[in-house]
Amino acid sequence: MFGLFNKNTEENTPEWYAELQESKERWFAFLEKLEAKMEELAMAAIPELKQILKEDDDLYKRTFHNVYSGINGQLNNIRTKARETYEEKIINLYYNINSQVSVLSKHHDLISDFRDVSSNRYYEFENKCEYWRKQIEKTKERDLEIEYQKILGEFETIKDKFNCTQCGGNLTIDKIFLIETYVSCPYCKTQNTFTPSTLGRNLQNIARELAEQRTAHLQEEYESEVEKERELYHEHHKLSLSTIHESNKSVLNEIHSKMKDLEEQRQFAIQNAPKLRQIYLRAMYDEWNKITPDLKEHNEKMYQNQLKY
């Protein structure tokens, strides 16, 4: 893992080479410790969060969200510590030594190697952070279809059991109301106040998240395309760097051919990602409108605003 500066090193290596080597090794070891700490934190937190969510009877799941925020705070502290160390111990050292060595020096590529390898290791760390962040985020997922069916079941039970306060006539509640609503009696025209249950009111709170769960596969397609573009960019960049010290024309032609192909794929991803995002958003808002049709006008304004970004 650490035998990384083999090329272009000679018996008379520059004085700063040892400092780079030591800093790199310390950096790798430091990230390994942070990764172990992060994994230990996540592995302990995930089952705990799932259990708390399951047992939390609070409508707004406040206990769960408090614990969830605390876990995320610890994870962010780990990421912040890595970022600050990266800037202080790697980037600052790179610029310091790079400013003292001519780009024409036969040892200058050692400095670039130090930066590239150290940065790549940092990107690996960030990818692991993102993986565990997403695993922790998944603990928020409730089976909202079950909650939705409970709301529908309650509605079927109560919709024909509401009577006029004036004449006692039977009033049919024709839809799930999210707030207190006046229901006119068809017999005596009295305006009766219908107060939805706590369960009924909660439909407004879960509607968007339920719609997002139903269209999660479309969001994943969009996010995969965005990630694909990033991966293609980094792959293209690595090939570009490999041409700096390459003199064989045949090899260069092959590299440039691969770079062209990667760039074509990347441009397609750049153009395709917004289309996939729009498909996801339209589907998600359609589901949302089905669940809470009274909010359709408000939701459509939000949809149009999201399309602008």
Count of the separate structural domains: 3
Query: Which term fits the overall shape?
Result: elongated
Q: Kindly state the mean pLDDT as a whole number?
A: 91
Output the helix-strand order. HHHHEEEEHHHHH
- Strand order across the largest sheet: 1-2
What oligomeric state do these chains adopt?
Answer: single chain
Count the beta strands. Answer: 4
Q: Compute the separation of the termini in Å.
A: 42 Å
Residues in β-strands, percent: under 5%
Question: How do the helices and strands line up, and which of them pair or pack?
Answer:
Layout: H1 15-55, H2 62-98, H3 108-137, H4 144-158, E1 162-163, E2 170-171, E3 181-184, E4 191-194, H5 198-201, H6 203-214, H7 216-242, H8 249-291, H9 296-307
What's a concise summary of this model?
72% of the residues lie in helices and 4% in strands.
Task: Describe the 3D structure.
The chain is mainly alpha-helical and 309 residues long. It has 3 domains: 15-141, Methane Monooxygenase Hydroxylase, Chain G, domain 1; 147-201, no CATH class; 211-309, no CATH class. The chain contains 9 helices and 4 strands; from the N terminus they run ααααββββααααα. It has helices spanning 15-55, 62-98, 108-137, 144-158, 198-201, 203-214, 216-242, 249-291, 296-307; strands at 162-163, 170-171, 181-184, 191-194. The protein has a two-stranded antiparallel ribbon. The longest helix is centred in the C-terminal third of the chain and has 43 residues, at 249-291. The chain is elongated. Residues 1-11 have low confidence and may be disordered.
